[in-house]
Amino acid sequence: MKPFFITAILVQTCLTNFAQQVFYYKVLIASTTEKVNKVYVAYEIAGEKIIDSFLLAKKQVVLTKKILQPVAATIYTNLKQTGSQSVFLANNSVKAAITEKSINVQETKLQSDFLFLTENDRIRPTYFPLYGELSSKNDTAGLNKLAVIFDSLKKDDINKSYNYFTANKNSLLRLFAFNRYTTFFADYSKIEKDFNLLPAWAKNSPDGKNISSKIDGAKSAQINTAARKFIQLTSTGQSFNIEAFEGKYILIDFWASWCVPCRKEHPNLIKLYEQFKNKNFDIVSVSLDSDKNAWIEAIIKDKINWTNVSDLKGQQNEIAIKYGVQSVPANFLINPNGVIIEKNLSSEMLYEKLTTLLNK
């Protein structure tokens, strides 16, 4: 069967300080099967998930829609066995050949750079089954070895993305690279210098504005500053106000179901909570999940029995923005007067601190 081509064009005009920046993407699909009748392009901008779709019933389809910034995306179809492909959309043409069993994207310089930066994203999932197996067996030695592997992948991500950021000042992947390495910063105020090196279109993009808000949040969430107030829904759908815990020592713990180091710490936090919960101490866990089912399943599996909240906006969680949190795990210890007295404590450090404060 002769392939037919479908063109999807997305164009958006972004205003920078004094100039107009146009972002678009064009997807050219060559399909050899009539079983595929719909193609999807999914991406996320500033925590908002967007799915563009178009039918393959016609030989020519033009879809015009706003896109606010260059963005990583996933192409997939109505046919599950075709799988999916990750692509980067930034003033470029993406050519994809679809069969009943695969989607193959033509290599370009932009696509090659994108795949280079995201290489470890395709490696990590191969270890998830092993993590589940080791966790079910409480194999501490095995989990420690796995933690070393994940740490090595993290360091590789940081090096690759930082080097790309510094070496490619005019690349439309620059904001993406910046996000790749700064996501591991525990104190987001420390990335302000690099943020200021970004071009105007990046700073004024939705992601750029969120980064700016997190930098401001991190600046205001330093030790010896007043903790920011917040209200968010719990895992059971109830509204929780942090003011309900006023007068207590509170650990605000930021985590996510997909964060291996976070989940590795849960058994230690549980022991601490049981030991100090009747001594004017409580924990509020803030999840940076976007998948509610994954969040709830992790809470149940890890047996977390303190307050859990999330707005399911992923790394754009409103509390995370207020506290300048981009990387998890992260935490803040607040005293009964509502002042941050420590942050980013390990379980051992937290135990020593609570022992000093609460066993007087």
Question: Can you describe what's shown?
Answer:
This protein is of the alpha+beta class and 360 residues long. Helices cover 36% and strands 26% of the residues. It is built from 12 helices and 15 strands. It has helices at residues 109-117, 119-123, 128-136, 140-167, 174-182, 192-195, 200-203, 206-220, 260-276, 292-302, 318-323, 347-358; strands at 4-15, 20-31, 38-45, 48-55, 71-77, 84-89, 92-98, 103-105, 231-233, 239-241, 249-255, 281-287, 307-309, 330-334, 340-343. The strands form 4 sheets. A 5-stranded mixed β-sheet has the order 13-12-11-14-15, covered by helices on one side. Strands 1-2-7-8 form a 4-stranded mixed β-sheet, with no helix packed on it. A 4-stranded antiparallel β-sheet has the order 4-3-5-6. β14 and β15 (340-343) form a beta hairpin. It starts with a strand and ends with a helix. The relative contact order is 0.10.
Across the major sheet, the strand order is: 13-12-11-14-15
Query: How many angstroms does the end-to-end distance come to?
Result: 80 Å
How many individual β-strands? Answer: 15
Radius of gyration: 23 Å
Outline type = globular
Mean pLDDT: 88
